[in-house]
From TrEMBL:
Chain ranges of the YNCE-like beta-propeller domain: 250-368
Chain residue ranges for the region called Disordered: 24-45
Descriptive protein name: DNA-binding beta-propeller fold protein YncE
GO molecular function annotation: DNA binding
Residues of the signal peptide: 1-23
The keyword Transmembrane belongs to this UniProt entry's keyword annotation: no
Entry-linked Pfam families: YNCE
Keyword Manganese set for record: no
Amino acid sequence: MGMRSRLLAAAVLVLATAGCSTAPAPAPTEPPPAAPPTAAAPTGMPPVTDPHNVYAAAGANMLSDAVRGAKPLVYVPETKSGDVQVIDPTTFQTVGTYHLGGELQHVVPSWDMRTLYATDDTTNKIVPFDPTTGTPGAPIPVVDPYNMYATPDGTSAISVAEARRKLVFYDPHTWQEQGELPTPDCAGIDHADYTPDGRTAVFTCEFAGRVAVVDLEHRTLLRMIDLPTRNTMMGPQDIKLAPDGSVFYIADSDQNGVWVLDGAATHVVREIPTGGGAHGLYLSRDATRLYVTNRHEGSVSVLDAYTGDPVAKWWIPGGGSPDMGNVTADGTQLWLSGRYDRAVYVLSTADGSLIRKIDVGDGPHGLCVWPQPGRYSLGHTGITR
């Protein structure tokens, strides 16, 4: 979270470092519920090709025509320096540093995967990057874009206005505002993911210990769901839909683990301990593994993406603060920002070994690995389906 956002959210909130856990996570004691029936998808949303794996079209090297001209690059937005640092993933060398100012949070791919946007929630702007050159364009005014997503049919870009507790919808081509949805009880509105049919979104509320369930078609708030333990200092963070749509996984930093929400987004099923400061959630290219970054203890927990069972735990040598990123197009590497260590980590997805630690600027956050496989992007640091 940005400092301004925390101060606006509540004057009494302070950054609390969660305790470290080194014990492996126990296996869940009950299986996830079956996936709910799938309703008709919104017009314009590419159909799900495999109900058992909504990410089936984003497998290894399944690059669409939209991204074939993109340079393979890694974009590192830095909250403290106000820079986006661009790294060549083949040489691990910085090939560009662009000072955009403000508090840069995430680099987000557009729905059509042809533009990347660096989001800045302090000066209310997004800055487009051309993926074919890796260079920025002119800034675009957007209200409080802490994070940004796209509706699954591509008709709207959504600014997650964290400090203002609302979602702001934009035309993704003209950037004219389409409307907004207040979420007054979702302090620290943050990350999101969608049901397989693309009609419902679940947004995490970091400072409220709950999630907001949103009807995207009617742009209405369906319900708020309190998590079993309502952590309100550094609570629910990233969220990821299981490949078969049966559950949502929700990382909770203060809980040091992952909550499991049913696929219909009505109630929490169980909890999976992972490690200190559970934060980011990323899938392997074949969608069989879920990588959970434990930011406060310098580790990554590997879970079975369907069952939540623990598979492995990878430790960053010398410690670190793994935060956000993604896997490479071929699925062999996991790139993560080191939020508190001015670093980027490159891990092997075969065994979790550290391939390279790269020095970057101050406060690296929502790192984007590009290009990504898939037919369309839902936003954040590259959620593609």
